[in-house]
Each structure stands twice: as structure tokens, then as C-alpha cells.
């Protein structure tokens, strides 16, 4: 985790004056590789504060719209009454439950002496640590950790029962201690599944929770994995003044839980009302907030009835741990001119022709978010349709991408000299790409919706896939050669090195896995990342994993692999076929296809991984090198053929061990002992005959295995062949 006191990350540029700040974060792939081998993927978080001259907050006005920022500080924290509700059903077994327990240990130590807490574990039974809230002491923290440590996964998932029990604990404590206005009651609820025990009907669970909480208990939910009923968790939080987060299967549930808790660990105010005179303000966004947490900010936007208004009356009422707070003031909101940027030049009022000013755009953004929340909470079909239409209309007017609008990515014009048609390659081709249009997504697309160009590429046999198994096709002699490379997890292999000529480099990073039972290997390795550097005509970087594609060339795009899309510019085209493959076409004369191998429930020895296939190598030079590249412009022949004059391998007898007779292969001046084998490619859809070179292809490839190890994912250096530069 980054230390925020150590300054901004490399490549960050900050320009600011007293009224304006401009922050640019645009690290090159090289800078990212220095931080982590796979680059930086995550949220870019800007932590900042502003000078606040008045306790009522900061109000800005421009062209009839206003925005009010309210973020009081130097207030004593409100006591928390918190119940941690942890799913301990059978599906939480293993890493998820262990990470969650470790995170709760950290969170318990963060509780303040004035806080009260309890812990509930639930499966098909509801297991309560204590039947009342406990004060925070060293002994109670220790006992709570022991209770969490002994939780074991078993049984089903009684979500309704767990929530009802947690709410009763909180309501009982508040009622008996008469501290409702001077504390905040929270439930932190974590699950990885759907309700399977007790009440399982979603609407009844929502109604039961809403009636029990009565707006006095805020529920913060975390859903882990792909099987969770995230819509239920989202509505539980929306209806009960909370927030929700989703943790994907491959993410660390513990760190996500700690980060979520950090957002709500310090409540400063409760029951906040912000009021403006109805005669002065219309169409204001939400003005009632159940809680205000340290580090957050309350933002309200609206329209002024009179653009020439000199002062706006504002009243804020709220409760904190000591007293009931009332703030009243008249804020001057005289006519304002367009601001100036850091360089001193006037800042435009909009983003372009017909665009609104930035305050109007913020108002539309907040209003759209509130409409979407209301749509999600509503159970009335007519009301939902009305809310959907309003949100869609507003989003289209201000060009926001929401679930009811979509975005169209234009593909390049089809080439007449396109690549060959593929037949029978369902695993390699995958489904057709989806086109999204910047129009209402609730209507049928109609005749104006055009499909983007999707090249139908015939994949050659030359490839590396699986554990990893290499295949090289020599079409002139009608020979196919195969070999294995037994690398180590974390090794980055040079697959194609043509940086000095065509400007193309392809590297692949290995990930490890245990060997299958009764196997001859101690471990397996697969490609988890394929990186492609294209240096001509302009530099572009591609990083491909089973879950996403990062294209960095001028602008940085992150494309999820579970959605089909085609993007392209400057002679580079990237086509993602959802959960099937990624096709990379360079200058129309080089094409690679990366197969995506996903497992719904992987065995211990399986990993999501990639296969790399060369579809078109015409644009690669005769100096091309790498584990695959060195063979692209070569030919091979058998100097000793035990099968006699015929080289039709389909007539060779297959031995029990899967290997046929031996021979000697002559390629690139090397004499290589080989043995005939059969090998499956294209995700197992096609079986090929090949001559297999043993011992990590020691006599087949130039040099040895260590000569093909790259220092980082975009390393272009090659100790063999002509390209020797290691510079990016």
C-alpha cells in the first residue's frame, strides 16, 4: 500500500494557484513497470482539501446554477454502535474467510473507547458473540478476535435472520441508553452468496429490514465473488442509509473490507438537514443526509430562481456528540465571471459547443445518480419506467454513460485485402462483438446501427499454449515441430523479437500452479500476461490478461475481456471477442490471436491463462527472433526419416506412450533429434502431428533458455539475433 506522505507517484504534474488546481497523472508503461511488473491497474485517488472561510461551507454560482460543498472539520467523533455480520456458510471456506478474519482483526483494533460493538456469524444458524453491545476495552477486543478466529464455514445462508438479529441488538442498546441523537448505529454486513435458508424472497427481506431499522440503523454491505446477490445488497444499503461494495473473485477481500471501513470509521455528524428558501432555489439535489463521515464531503447542487440574486440564505442543522448544531448565514452569490486556469488564461465555461458550464454539469450528474438510486429502490413498474426515462433523458443531454445509455466505438473501414476466412474455429473466433450506440439503450437499435468490421482470421499452428507447449509450422516442407519450455513462475519469455525492423516485440509472463496428481512434473506454468510493444509508426503498448486488455498509445484504454469490442488507431487494431480471444492486427500485415482460457471452477492445478497464436507474420522481418520468431522465416527438413520416403505422418504407427519413431531434424543449421508426437491446439479442438524436440528444445533453439528471459514485460532487448538494444 502506498504511503501517502511520500508524495505523488512518478509522472504526476500539479499546477495550482489560490483558486484552481490541475493534476495530470500519465505514467508511461516503463514507469508503471518499475512499480509492478504488470503495471498499475486501480483507482487513481486524489486526496485534497480546500480553504474554508465559513463554517456553512463553500458555495459557487455560475449562470443560474449553484453548488454547495459542506465538509466541516475539527469536530469530535460521534460514538459508533457497530455490529459486524460475517457470512460463515460453507461457500466462504478457504481464502475468503481467512482474509475476512484478518481484516476484522485490524478493524477491531481501530475501534475507539467510546464505541460499542458486537459480532454475528451466520450460516443456516445465527451465532451471536454477545447478546448485547460491548464497550471497547483491550479484553473485549481480544475476546472478539478469539470468537472470530474460531468461526468455521458450514451450512447455508440466512441473510434475513442475521440482519434482524443485528438490528435488534442495536435498537435494544440505543433504547436502553437513550443516546440515539449522540451516536451512530451501523451494521457492516459481508456475504458471498444468495439467501438459501429462512426467508429467501428478496422483497420480503427488504421489507423486513426496512421496518426493523426504521431509518435509525445504517447498513453497509460487501458482496464477495460472482455468486453473490449484489442487487439485494445494493438495495439493502440504499434503503438503509448505507453504501455497498463488490469484491471480485480474484481480489483480496480483506484489503477491500479495510478500505471500505476506513470510509466510515469516523462519523462526525448525524441527521444533517441543509435548507434553502423555496423562493430562491429549485430542483436541488438531496438535502437530507443521515451521517457525515470524516474525510468525505456533502455536495448539493441546484438552480437559482433569480440569476441576479445577491445573497443566498442557507441553514444547516445536525447533531454531533456534544450538541445539536444549527448554522445560518446569508452567502454572497453575486454575478461571477468565468474562472481562470493556473496559467492565467480564461477557462471556458463549457466543454465544447453546446456543453453546459461545469456547475450545471455537476448538478446534472448528481441528479442522474439520484434518479438511478430511486429507480433501483422502486418496486412499482410505472414509477420505475418514469425514473428510467428521466435518467436516460438527462444522461443523453449531458453525455453521461449510464445503464440506460451506451457508447459506440467505431471500428476501421473494412479492408478489401482482408485476412483469410476461418472455418471451424469456434474457440478461436468467439461470439460476434457487441456494438453500443450513444442512444437510449432501452429501445431497439433499428437500421442505423452498424456492426463494426470484424476480421475473420485463420490461425496458423505456430503458437504457444497450455503448460507452455510450443508449436512451429514449416509450411514449405509440410513439417510441424513442437517443444516444451519448463520455466519458473514470474519468468518473462521473449516470444517474438523484431524491435529493430518491424518494431514489434511480444513477451509472455508465466504464472505457476501445482502439478496434477500422479503427474511427472512438480509444477505447471502458464502464460498469465502477454505484452506487445509496437514501435512503428508510433509507439503503442498492449498488456493482455484473461480479464482485461490495456492499450496505451497516446490515450490509455482499459478493455474488459468479458465484453466484445473493436478499437483501433495509427495502424493498430485490437478486437476483443468476449471471454474467447483478443486479436491484434498491426499495419494489416501482422496479426496475433491470444486465446483466453477461463475455468468456472478451476482445479488446484488449473489457472486462468492465455494462448498465443501467430495468424499473419508477413510484416515481420527476416531478422525476427524470440522463441517463436526465430522460426518464422525458416524451413526445416528431416535428414533421417524412419518412415521411409513418405513424410505423411498420418500413416506412422502410434505407440502406447503417445510417441512414434525418432528422426533427426535439420533447421537453421542445427541437427536436432526429434520424436513423433500428437498434440492438441486451439483450446483442444484440433489434434496435430508434430516432431517433438526434447530437453527444453536445447538443440533446436538458438542459445539456451536463459537467453530468452526478459527483465520486464516490455523489454525489447535480445542477446541473440540482431536486436540487442534494451531501451524502450
TrEMBL record:
One of its GO terms (molecular function) is serine-type endopeptidase inhibitor activity. One of its GO terms (cellular component) is extracellular region. The keyword Transferase does not apply. InterPro entries: ITI_HC_C, ITIH, VWF_A, vWFA_dom_sf. Residues 334-357 are annotated as: Disordered. Keywords: Glycoprotein, Protease inhibitor, Secreted, Serine protease inhibitor, Signal. Residues 81-264 form the VWFA domain. It comes from the Eukaryota. The keyword Signal applies. It is found in: Secreted. GO terms for biological process: hyaluronan metabolic process. Belongs to the ITIH family. This is Inter-alpha-trypsin inhibitor heavy chain 5. It comes from Rhinopithecus roxellana. The lineage of its organism: Eukaryota, Metazoa, Chordata, Craniata, Vertebrata.
